[in-house]
């Protein structure tokens, strides 16, 4: 029986989650802290160290062989640094080195959060059994990751598959990244809500102007809400089709808050996809909702740690 464990960290702008995970992807112990996102870098690192401290205090810790980190990006796996957009205190922050020190020198694998969720969906979720897949997280931002030839493909810095910043509208709105007409600028939750409000959608008496509220209105048949989701679906379809045409994926998995909108998103998305995925080799492309839920980041970080251990043949990702 393979009794080794890995530690996993899922670092975002809201929370820092940690876990000890076995070789089957089962979470045996959890720890969590709120991210002090507006504080200085050392304060943020203090929260990470508190999570790690809870893990290292466990009797299970002696079995931990490696650490996987999925972090909000951009990350630079080659340098071991992170510069999350939503954590201004971390710019080129040496996270790998600091986590290695906090864990007594264990090997550390760093990937972006979109890549982590991709690893999880490929190992145990909606992309399981697919050798070539794109997994997307559509929420406040739009991120993603790729599986190519049966292996996670994070790219040299750990950011490959970042579909949110493919341009799908040449003359579109300026995106905060500096480009125009990015998938994220059209399809992220806040942008779906912004478009609905600009189009004259009126929130209910509770004043909720979130994408979830727009989705609820769309389900009730509100034409402006429906149109905002259709526009987002078309942007996603164009980005997914471009990716499939470039690298021959056969499935796109969509998670994140906007992915939870259900048919309001997936029906127009599946309808729009053939308009963009036109060539013979991409016509079999399917789109599915993510299955892994809130633990995806931790499970994916664990998968990266297992994959980084060359002496672990059951590394999950190669299966």
List keywords for this structure.
single chain, 319 residues, alpha/beta, Nucleotidyltransferase, domain 5, 2 domains, five-stranded mixed beta sheet, 9 helices, 20% strand, disordered C terminus, ROK family protein, ROK, ROK_cs, ATPase_NBD
How is the secondary structure organized here?
Elements: E1 5-11, E2 15-22, E3 27-34, H1 41-56, E4 64-71, E5 75-76, E6 81-82, H2 95-102, E7 108-112, H3 113-124, E8 133-138, E9 142-148, E10 151-153, H4 183-187, H5 189-198, H6 211-219, H7 223-247, E11 251-255, H8 263-276, E12 286-289, H9 296-308
Parallel strand pairs: 1-4, 4-7, 8-11, 11-12
Antiparallel strand pairs: 1-2, 2-3, 5-6, 8-9, 9-10
Helix pairs in contact: 1-2, 3-9, 5-6, 5-7, 6-7, 7-8
């Amino acid at each position: 029986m393979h009794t080794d464990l890995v530690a996993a960290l899922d670092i975002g702008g809201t929370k820092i989650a940690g876990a000890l995970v076995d070789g089957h992807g089962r979470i045996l112990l959890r720890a969590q802290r709120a991210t002090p996102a507006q504080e200085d870098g050392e304060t943020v690192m203090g929260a990470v160290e508190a999570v790690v401290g809870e893990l290292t205090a466990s009797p299970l810790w002696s079995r931990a062989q490696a650490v996987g980190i999925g972090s909000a990006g951009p990350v630079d796996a080659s340098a071991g640094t992170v510069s999350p957009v939503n954590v201004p205190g971390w710019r080129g922050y040496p996270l790998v080195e600091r986590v290695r020190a906090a864990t007594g020198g264990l090997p550390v694998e760093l990937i972006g959060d979109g890549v982590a969720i991709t690893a999880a969906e490929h190992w145990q979720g909606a992309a399981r059994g697919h050798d070539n897949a794109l997994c997307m997280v559509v929420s406040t931002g739009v991120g993603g990751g790729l599986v190519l030839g049966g292996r996670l493909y994070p790219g040299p810095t750990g950011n490959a598959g970042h579909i949110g910043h493919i341009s799908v509208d040449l003359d579109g709105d300026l995106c905060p990244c500096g480009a125009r007409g990015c998938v994220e600028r059209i399809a992220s939750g806040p942008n779906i809500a912004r478009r609905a409000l600009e189009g004259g959608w009126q929130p209910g008496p509770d004043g909720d102007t979130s994408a979830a509220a727009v989705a609820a209105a769309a389900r009730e048949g509100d034409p402006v809400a429906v149109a905002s989701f259709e526009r987002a679906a078309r942007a996603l379809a164009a980005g997914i089709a471009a990716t499939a045409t470039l690298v021959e994926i056969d499935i796109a998995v969509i998670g994140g808050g906007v992915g939870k909108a259900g048919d309001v998103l997936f029906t127009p998305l599946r309808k729009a996809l053939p308009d963009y995925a036109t060539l013979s080799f991409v016509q079999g492309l399917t789109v599915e909702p993510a299955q892994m839920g809130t633990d995806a980041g931790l499970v994916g970080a664990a998968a990266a740690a297992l994959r980084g251990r060359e002496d672990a043949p059951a590394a999950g990702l190669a299966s």
